[in-house]
Predict the 3D structure of the following.
Amino acid sequence: MIEQVLNSAELSMNEISQIAVSIGPGSFTGLRIGLAAVKGIAFGAQKPITAVPTFEAFAFKISQSINNVKFAVVNNVNTDELYYEEYRKLNDGRIEIVKELSLIKKDEFENHSKNVEFIYGNFLHPKIFNKTSICTAFDIANWAYLFGKELLTYNYDYLEPNYFKKFTARVKK
C-alpha cells in the first residue's frame, strides 16, 4: 500500500525527508497500529518521524477559515464521553488554547460549549458546526511541515501515542 501511494505521487522513499504520524488523542487500536507502522517504515528507510498532536493539527486547519473567534474541537471517545478542547484564533493568526484537552461526559457538553462560537468534530449534536469536518492525513503532514521541525526524531523507541484516556476493556451488559 505504501508503494502504491508513493507511485501515485510519482515519488520514491529517497525523496521523502520525514514521516509524520498522528499521535492522538484517538482510538487506542488505531493509534497503536498507526505508530507501529510508521516506526517500521521510518526505521527501514532511515527517516525521522514527526509526532503530530491530532487536535492541534485539526485546530490549525480550522483556523485557516475563521477570524478572531473561539472554537472547539470535540470527538467521540465512546458512548458516554468526548474529547474536548477550546481554542481562539487571534488577530495575528496565531491559535491560543483556551481550555486544554479534556475528557468530558456527553451530557455535560452543553455546559462546556456554551461560550464557543464554532464547534467542529464527529459528535452528532445540533451545535456542531461541521459534522463532516475531520483531520486528514494532509492536515497531519501540513502541521508537521509548518510546526514540527523541533519534534523530528530518529529515536523511535520513545514515541508513544497520546491515549489521554486509560484503556479499559468493557463488558457488554
The chain has two domains: 2-53+136-158, 54-121. The mean pLDDT is 88. Helices lie at 2-8, 28-45, 54-63, 109-112, 137-147. The longest helix spans residues 28-45.
